[in-house]
Design brief:
The protein has 282 residues and is mainly α. Helix content is 44%, strand content 7%. The chain has 2 domains: 177 residues, no CATH class; 90 residues. The chain contains 12 helices and 6 strands.
Length: 282
């Protein structure tokens, strides 16, 4: 996962023009047939695609590594898996701050699940007979007080490294209870995700090893070796700067560079690799 910044005031036109549908949902509640052509319209999808850089909100896969990306309701619109008495957050069915962008695999796994750690909100915020739209925003105090257990990349102070750990073998592990529930609900342990993350680590490791092999065989100079190692480390940085898939993995590769890479080399090579890394970042 990665932090996503959404300008909540720049609401796509289809969501600004659906007052009648919102009022209908308030009357029909769980029985309302939500308009996919509205909350998942081409315009809404294009906006989310740009904001999320065509990556899944949960697993960070793009359309080549994951499934087709879809509009996801963070709080389920029709029912809640964890509470059969809840009619769903029907008043948030067309709410811009409740819409994320997710691959079909994460979307299908999450489905109507929305575990919380506190008291659940059952009713929409109203000003008389009018829906309080400010009370529908994701950062509204009543909604925040539910203490959602599924991570939301659009949270104001969201930092995935506080909740999730990614290992050199590509496996994802929990750091907090929220991280644990997110992994389990969205099935972020899926084999294809683990393989995709592991292949990235192996790719960088392979290039570094190849550089040392060429130096050992006197095919390149010491300066050339250092230059190649610098380029490879900078490629990891570019994964973050260019918002490529699995930026959380890239951050862990840099934060725990010794664990991901240095320990795989011979002692003399370790000294060289650590020195190159330290000169780039210290």
């Amino acid at each position: 996962m990665r932090k996503i910044v959404k300008i909540t005031t720049l609401i796509p036109k289809p969501l600004n023009d659906c007052t009648a549908k919102i009022n209908k949902a308030l009357l029909e509640k769980a029985g309302h047939k939500f308009s996919n052509n509205t909350y998942a319209s081409k315009n809404v999808k294009q906006n989310l695609m740009k904001i999320y850089n065509n990556k899944c909100a949960f697993c960070e896969s793009d359309t080549t590594a994951g499934a087709v990306l879809q509009v996801e309701h963070y709080r389920p619109k029709a029912k809640v898996k964890e509470d059969s008495t809840h009619t769903g957050y029907y008043w948030l069915g067309y709410e811009w701050t409740n819409l994320l962008y997710a691959c079909s695999s994460c979307n299908r796994a999450k489905s109507t699940s929305f575990p919380i750690a506190a008291i659940r909100v059952f009713n929409p915020p109203m000003n008389g007979t009018i829906l309080d739209t400010d009370g529908c925003k994701a950062n509204y105090i009543d909604l925040e007080n539910e203490k959602p257990l599924i991570l939301n990349p659009e949270e104001t102070n969201f930092n995935p490294m506080q909740h999730l750990i990614i290992s050199p073998n590509g496996k994802i592990r929990k750091k907090t209870n929220r991280g644990d529930r997110t992994i389990k609900v969205c099935k972020l342990y899926r084999k294809n995700l683990t393989i995709a993350r592991r292949s990235i680590v192996d790719e960088h490791l392979r290039y570094m090893m190849k550089a040392f092999e060429k130096r050992k065989d006197n095919l390149i100079s010491e300066n050339n070796l250092i230059g190649r190692l610098e380029v490879e480390i900078e490629r990891i940085v570019d994964r973050i700067n260019n918002n490529e898939p699995y930026t959380l993995l890239a951050k862990y590769m840099l934060k725990h560079f010794d664990h991901f890479f240095v320990r795989k080399f011979q002692p003399i090579e370790q000294v060289v690799l650590k020195d190159v890394f330290n000169r780039l970042f210290h």
